[in-house]
Specification:
Largest sheet: 2 strands, parallel
Number of strands: 2
Structural class: mainly alpha
Strand order of the largest sheet: 1-2
Low-confidence stretches: none
Mean pLDDT: 92
Helix content: 40-55%
Radius of gyration: 15 Å
Length: 81
């Protein structure tokens, strides 16, 4: 059920921004047994029908800590670190 609802959200993301890749990470993807990239992709194929080619779904390589690296980079770019 969670994979289906995530696919609906990704549909909105894809329609609005038209990305070629959507990277999924965090505890929802890493720790939820019912939500896998494969299941989300399966549901996304059903709902995202306006494009001939759907964005590729990829699992975040940094897992749960990817957001921390992004936040640190923003702090560095704004001279807070």
């Amino acid at each position: 059920e969670g994979a289906k609802w995530l696919a609906y959200g990704l549909n909105n993301t894809a329609v609005y921004w038209s990305p070629s890749v959507i990277v999924l990470g965090g505890s929802m993807i890493i720790k939820s047994p019912g939500i896998s990239i494969e299941r989300v992709s399966h549901h996304l194929k059903k709902v995202l029908t306006i494009f001939s080619e759907r964005p590729r779904l990829a699992k975040a390589e940094l897992g749960d800590i990817g957001g921390l690296y992004g936040a640190l980079e923003i702090l560095k770019q704004n001279n807070y670190l």
